[in-house]
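User: Show me a protein chain along with its predicted structure.
Assistant: Here is one chain, sequence first, then structure tokens.
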Amino acid sequence: MGRLRPGQFWPALLLLGIVILGLTRLRFDVEVLNLLPGQLHAVQGLRQYQENFANARELILTVRGRDAATTEGLTRSLALSLREAGGVAAVTWQPPWQERPAEGAELSAYLWFQQPPDVFGQLIHRLDPLTIPDALEDARQQLATSFSPDGIGRLAYDPLNLLELPESAAVESLGTGDAERYFVSPDGTFRVVFVKADNDLSSYRECVRWLESIQRHVAFWRESESERSHLEIAFTGRPAFVAEIGGGMERDIIRSIAGTGLIIACLFWWTHRRWRPLLWLLALLLMILGGTLALGGLMLGTLNVVSTGFAAILLGLAADYGLVLYQEARARRHPDAAALRRELTPTIAWAALTTAGAFALLNLSSLPGLAQLGSLVAIGVLLAAFVMLAAYLPPLLKQTQAGANAASSPARNWIPRPSLVRIATRVVFAGMALVLFTGLPQFDRSPDALRPGRSAAYAALDDIRDELRTGPEPFWLVLRGSDALDVRNLLDRARPVLEHSKTAGEIEDFTLPDSLWPDPRLQEANRDTARVLADRREAVRAAFLASGFTTNALVMTGAMLDFWDRAAAGTPPIWPANPSSQWVLDKFAARAPGALLALGLVYAPVDSADARDSPAFDALIADLPRDGVWLSGWDHLGSELSGLVLRELPVVVGWIGLLVCGALWLVFRKPREVFLSLATLLLSVGVLMAVMRAAGWSWNMMNLMAVPLLFGLGVDYSIHIQLSLRRHHGDLAAVRQSVGRALLLAGGTTITAFGSLAFSSNAGLASLGRVCAAGITATMLIAVYLLPGWWRAWARADDTVEQAP
């Protein structure tokens, strides 16, 4: 053998470089909305809400204690401790103005500044230096005679009642009135703490690290005093969701690879008791998986929460080809790699092309998550067929030949007698019909398939809704404009539409940030009045001191005058800027590059859970301004997305059906065998639906794609069985010795691969795994135990037995 020239290393080095480049480009995409079609109105609305109003840096802690007083004290202690933690920008455990009352004056001054000029102009009389002494004297008398603690406290800091806003400025429904209810339950034993990170937490690994640091800090705080140990503390909010989803993706892909590989190894050892072919099979499977990841990284760049399931599926399918090759080799006394490759290449190639085509056609679905899953599996299946045909048998031929005699001994008749086949077929049909007579599996239109199946963060969020009694989750009305005036015009156009819908009973209620959203026209008209009021600052101060009030009584009034001074000097739109005001603004206003956004809330009728699916609700969406306005919510998303999936399913099934029929015709060129393969598939789907009905499983937007997948996956078994029957001239014992045992083992690995997805952290992927595992089980058993009997019965009816091609 000659020495390798240096130039011969370049192809291998180039291939290695491509693999490394592909793997380094891989990223985890933890954003749930990226699993969804972006053209849907509901998805667009949710994306606008998630990107602009769901604070990406805010972690929410829930604290549950034994009694109200103790819970309040310990929550305050926890909040103060968290403010000293690293990586924390702010901690809010009660309405901010309760800790910093003076900051609340700015928001009141802003709301006054938002009023029509005649209403705002009334303050000129109330702050007239000539009338202020009389107003202050009235306040002194009320302070002397009042028995109301709240009244005394308010007058002591606001003797001119400037914090008492006109009715048009009411903002209670937006959370700035009774804001306490957003932090504490009615009985006081459940509280909420908002913790904001000091960085953007742009990746899921940053979320994981920051969340773990907060959890360690909380654990240390709890352990420092025994009275804190009884508290129940949970974590939710975007950092918790992202950390949970990202960590779940890592665990899913590692667990599915390890679990599927282990079961493949156990099944192989149980069947063949050979170390060398087992280790070589596992090595090739890892090579195929790595190559697929590299190619996927080059083509796609990211793996989402659904596409991570490709690894388990691919391992199960790739192992099938190696198992078929090995079993065929063991069934021969003198196996030859080249001869076996020539003989089995058509079978494996057609099976791989059909399976890859079925998964590739998932790209016809509008769900990016399923499309990416289909692309990765399709790439991997084609790579697996090539690698197994080219590389699996040559290193094993000597060992295979050594064990061939024992392996090729005559086996008992593994196929039931014709009478048993007929009985079994009738029993399957009768059982399927009996179960389906009670009804078909239901279709779940909820968006639960997009969420984690087991989520501590979602459980904590549900606790917040239950304890704070916020009621059902509202629909979010997002309005986007180029500037403040543009958004204001959208608000003015949306209000009459919502009022009409409320009057008609189509919605229960709604809130819009009318009074809080800046109106540049009113602000411009009020600037002169604001300047007059600000110029009276010294006169007001003198009047307060002359009336016997201390400088503390000037805090609120002074803060309001300061805001009006800034407003008079500024250019509309004017926004409040202190931390307390910003906390309120974040609830309904957001800035994006080149745009401003406002948020309103719409509540469906409490006595109509299906209102979101009604024509009236769709009419409301149609009546709202179309440009720059989105009405959306998770529940409405589930309805809209389910409708899209149901519309697309016939298209996907149709194309995969054409692919399967075309492949079967090219493989068999006999209508009889094409019909038998299709009958196997259709019966398998019927059995699957009966199993789902009996088990209480529902269809959803994710597992519905199991139907076209079963056509692409299940056809492999019928192809292998019928081609083997041809090669062995209908000799069932020979078929049993070669393909029969291999398919049972291969089917077990595929079922295991899909079954492992049932433990996925994503509910939709878990349901897809369960349904596919059940469907593949039905297809395999029917193909292995019933199809040969059908084939032989038909062959006898024609008094012919197919010859090997």
